[in-house]
Design a protein that fits this description.
It contains ten helices and eight strands. By secondary structure, it is an alpha/beta fold.
């Protein structure tokens, strides 16, 4: 059984005993896990130490260790086994300068808009059956987004900035509909990133799970041999992996938005129990979100004739993009299963 180990809270010592990783907690508790059964360790805790022997064992067995601070990834420990084909990197850069780059940017935006529309349609159908009062809001947003989709499809001479503007316009319709669905006590009045300092549980949950999604996509990008900082829709930035953000777009709705919306609409969430006085998610609620996230990654889905867990599709998508860039595939198809 493959295990993802998630450490939250305070005070952990990670050591080694034979082929076992040993976790010592500050309360005196101890857990031993065979390194062969470990796939990832996510550290979202303070006061954590790793012994040199534990680091060597983790690296030898290819176990990725991801460090989070205030719910966002800040670093990782991973083995130096990553391929970096020179020909692929050259094509990745060339594609930014020829027609492939803007075509990929357009494909990414169209797919994200399509995923938003598909998710809203699912929500519309479920509320039609229950006679919900929000169906008219959903219907209007779906139509508004459809018009924007058609507009993006029909324009040939476009720019990355124009695409980003259209994506933002679509997002406003999308999140307005989501706000009409969520319970009023959540006080969700629109999408806010971590830089907006949100204090509502839904935005905080989105930001937390998007951070985890980024770590999954980033690792898959590096394993494919692509450079995570050379992208096509998002601007290149030394501090932000633009290609990772590009490929994240196709998984936001299926992996994060859909299960989060389902959870918050089906469970009566007491805001005071999930958000601390410091306007951060509580440790207990983070564990709930982690369960939601990794259960979704393990859910099987059929895409491009492959019925595998969604985490497998995340792993394959950068490889499919690499094949397109190298000319082994005529096009690139983003993930679109909702």
């Amino acid at each position: 059984m493959v295990v993802r180990l998630i450490l939250s809270g305070h005070g952990y010592k990670i050591g080694k005993k034979g082929g076992m990783i040993v976790i010592h907690r500050s309360d005196g508790g101890k857990k031993e896990i065979s390194v062969g059964n470990l796939s990832t360790i996510i550290v979202n805790a303070r006061g954590v130490s790793l012994s040199g022997d534990a680091i060597n064992l983790l690296l030898k067995h290819g176990v990725q260790v991801v460090f989070l601070s205030r719910d966002r990834p800040v670093g990782k420990l991973q083995p130096m086994k990553l391929r970096f084909p020179v020909a692929l990197k050259k094509e990745q850069v060339k594609a930014q300068l020829d027609g492939r780059g803007i075509e990929l940017a357009k494909i990414i935006v169209l797919n994200k808009v399509g995923n938003q529309m598909r998710l809203l349609k699912r929500l519309y159908k479920s509320r039609m059956r229950t006679g919900s009062e929000v169906v008219s809001e959903l219907s209007k947003s779906i139509e508004d987004i459809r018009k924007l989709y058609v507009e993006i499809m029909s324009v040939d001479d476009l720019s990355r900035s124009w695409l980003m503007a259209k994506e933002a316009e679509t997002a406003r319709h999308y999140w307005k509909s989501i706000s009409s669905i969520l319970p009023e006590n959540l006080e969700f009045d629109g999408r806010k990133t971590r830089y907006d300092n949100p204090d509502d549980p839904f935005n905080l949950s989105l930001n937390y799970l998007y951070s985890l999604l980024m770590t999954q996509v980033w690792f898959s990008v590096e394993l494919s041999g692509l450079d995570p900082f050379i992208g096509y829709l998002h601007e290149d930035n030394n501090r932000r992996p633009s290609l990772v953000m590009d490929l994240m777009e196709e998984f936001r709705q299926p992996v994060v938005d859909k299960p989060l919306i389902a959870y918050f609409t089906r469970h009566k969430v007491d805001v005071d129990n999930v958000v601390s006085e410091e306007k951060r998610l509580t440790d207990d609620f983070r564990r709930t979100l982690l369960k939601i996230f990794f259960e979704e990654l393990d859910r099987r889905a059929t895409f491009l004739n492959r019925n595998i867990p969604i985490k497998g599709h995340i792993h394959l998508q950068p490889k499919r993009l690499a094949k397109y860039l190298l000319g082994f595939s005529p096009t690139y198809q983003p993930y679109n299963v909702i």
